[in-house]
Amino acid sequence: MSSVKLCSVKLNDGFFMPMLGFGTSAPNKVAKSEVQEAVMRAIDVGYRHFDSAYLYLNEEEIGRAIRKKIADGSVKREDIFYTSKVWGTFLRPELVRTSLEISLRKLQLSYVDLYLIHIPIPLKPGEELFPKDEHGELIFHTVDLCATWEAMDKCKDSGLAKSIGVPNFNRKQRERILDKPGLKYKPVCNQVECHPYLNQSKLLGFCKSQDIVLTAYAALGSNSGKECSPGGSSTQCHCCKAQANPAQVALRYQLQRGVGALAKSFNEERIRENFQVLDFQLTPEDMESLDSLNRNIRYFQDGEEIQLSQSTKGLPLLGGKRLGNTVSSSPSVPLSLGTLMSCAPTLLAFQSQAM
C-alpha cells in the first residue's frame, strides 16, 4: 500500500482525504505554466491531494496537468483528491452551483472531491472578484450563510462535489452552520492558518469533538519569497533527531497531530523534500517541544498575508530557522476575513497571496 493511502483520513461523510496536500495559490509573478508544471511534478513525486480555488485563476492549468498525468497512465481520476472553493461573489444560494460548474469546466473534470466556502463574506455578484463602488470601496452583499450551506448540500447531492466544508469561519459562523435546524451534512473539514507559531490547539480540539478534520494552510509560514528566513542560532534538535529540514518538521508536526497540511512550492527539489514527511516520525518529546513554540502569531491576518516591518527577531527557532519573514500577533481565534476585507488597498495582494 502506498504511503499516501496510509496517510489518509476518513471524513465524516465516509470519503477519504490524503492528509498531505499540495497548495496551488501563487503570486502574480508566478506564471500559470509554472503552476501546471509544479502540479505535474507533484503527481510524479506522489502527491494526490491538490488544493485550489476559483479565486486563484489557475484551475485550467491544474486541470490540464491532472488530465495529462491521467492520459500517460501515472494516475486515475479516482486517485486524485481535488479541492476547490466558492468565492464570495457566488454566495447567493442560486449561484453556488454556478461557481462550481465554472470550476469544473475549467478543470474539464466531472466532480471535485471537496468544495469549500472560501470566505464567509458575501460580495456583490458579478464578474469582478472584488467589486467596488465609485469611491473604491468594496461592495458587500447580504446573504444568509445557512442558505448558502443548503446550496452546498445540493452540490454534494448532485455528485458535483463529493464532500463539502469551510475555511476561515469564526466561531459564531461555524456554530450557525452546525446548529442549523435540519442540518443535512456537516462540514467535513475546516481549513485555517496553522503552523508551529499558531498551532490552533483549541480549534483542533473542537474540530475533533465534531468529527471535522482541521487542515492547515500557511503550514510553512508566510507566502512571501522565502519559505523560511535564517535564524541566528544552532538550535536544531528537532531537525537533527529526525534528520529532516525545518519545513519537513513543520509539516510532520501537523500530520502527527491529526491535522491535514498543505505544502506549497514551485521548486522541484522542495516539492520532493516536502513529500518525504511521510517517511519519518517525530518523537513525543519533539511534539511536546514543538507545541511549546506556539505564540499565536499569524502570517495572514484575516486571510491576508501581513506585510509589516515587525521583525521575527523574538521568535523561537525551528531547526535554527524561523518560519516566514514578517509576522503579527493576534488572539488565538479562528480566522475571520471581516476587518482587512474592508480595506480595498490590501485586496489585490489578497487575490495573489491569500489562501
Automatic annotation (TrEMBL):
The NADP-dependent oxidoreductase domain, residue ranges: 20-222, 242-294
Keyword Flavoprotein assigned to the entry: answer is no
Q: Do you know which InterPro entries this protein is assigned to?
A: AKR (IPR020471), Aldo/ket_reductase_CS (IPR018170), NAD(P)_OxRdtase_dom_sf (IPR036812), NADP_OxRdtase_dom (IPR023210)
- The feature of type site (Lowers pKa of active site Tyr) is located at K85
One Pfam family assigned to this protein is Aldo_ket_red
Q: Any idea which GO molecular function terms this record carries?
A: oxidoreductase activity
What positions does the entry give for substrate binding? H118
Keywords of this entry: NADP, Oxidoreductase
- Which sites are catalytic? Y56
Which family, according to the similarity comment? Belongs to the aldo/keto reductase family.
What is the protein name for this chain?
A: NADP-dependent oxidoreductase domain-containing protein
Q: What is the scientific name of the source organism?
A: Panthera leo (Lion)
Organism phylogeny: Eukaryota, Metazoa, Chordata, Craniata, Vertebrata
